[in-house]
């Protein structure tokens, strides 16, 4: 008796350790349904190689077997690069600056020029998905002074957000649009759109895809509390949620 068609799909992120022809074939043969390209990492040349290999695998069959999903980086606020991890200890002062390239024991850069404007004294900054937290004590033109509440090891390019608030970043960044155009040119099957806050971003992307004549489905990623009030309209506008 044949097995019923599996409704749950297996999505595999293709990175440096899985981007070879041999590994993509192995993943496909063992159940991969979707090859995910994480646009937060890698470049268009490496992702193009993956796309070509997946299409080469699919060419063996009459029907497409493995779909290709392009996952946008989205609007993120991140700390800068540090030569080595910085240990944050409870009670110590630690600062974030919008000046580029700053890295010391008590101050690091952030990648977002409006960071100082978006935070207020008393706000709680969550670092690396809440692994660390800091209270904002004061701010100046280019510096936010904090006190560590929950310490930890601060590594390069950690995600930053303010508890209960969101940064005033565009829903689709310039980098995202470049990646989306790359996906159109290479005929991917899905976009996974990061940090979707409302349905407008989905409509904007779908309008663009229609103007290109691209048959690409849009999956939304619900990643913050800001999405909750608009959840129903977001899901209705999209082709699925993640």
TrEMBL record:
The keyword Phosphoprotein does not apply. GO terms for molecular function: ATP binding; kinase activity; magnesium ion binding; potassium ion binding; pyruvate kinase activity. It catalyses: pyruvate + ATP = phosphoenolpyruvate + ADP + H(+). Pathway: Carbohydrate degradation; glycolysis; pyruvate from D-glyceraldehyde 3-phosphate: step 5/5. It comes from the Eukaryota. Pfam families: PK. It is found in: Plastid, Chloroplast. Belongs to the pyruvate kinase family. This is Pyruvate kinase. It comes from Vitis vinifera. The gene is KPYG_2.
């Amino acid at each position: 008796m044949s097995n019923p068609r599996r409704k749950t799909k297996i999505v595999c992120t293709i990175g440096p350790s899985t981007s070879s022809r041999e590994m993509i074939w192995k993943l496909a043969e063992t159940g991969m349904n979707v090859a995910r390209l994480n646009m937060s990492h890698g470049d268009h040349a490496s992702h193009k190689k993956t796309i070509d290999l997946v299409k080469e695998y699919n060419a063996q069959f009459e029907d497409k077997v493995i779909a290709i999903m392009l996952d946008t980086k989205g609007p993120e606020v991140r700390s800068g690069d540090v030569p080595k991890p910085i240990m944050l200890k409870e009670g110590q002062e630690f600062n974030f600056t919008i000046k580029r390239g700053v890295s010391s024991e008590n101050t690091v850069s952030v990648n977002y020029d409006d960071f100082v404007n978006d935070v207020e004294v008393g706000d709680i900054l969550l670092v690396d998905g809440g692994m660390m937290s800091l209270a904002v004590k004061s701010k100046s033109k280019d510096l936010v002074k904090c006190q560590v509440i929950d310490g930890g090891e601060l590594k390069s390019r950690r995600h930053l957000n303010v508890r209960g608030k969101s940064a005033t970043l565009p829903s689709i960044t310039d980098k995202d649009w470049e990646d989306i155009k790359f996906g159109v040119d290479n005929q991917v099957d899905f976009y996974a759109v990061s940090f979707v806050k409302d349905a407008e971003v989905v409509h904007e992307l779908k309008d663009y895809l229609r103007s290109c004549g691209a048959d690409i489905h849009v999956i939304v990623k619900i990643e913050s509390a800001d999405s909750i009030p608009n959840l129903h309209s977001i899901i209705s506008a999209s082709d699925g949620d993640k």
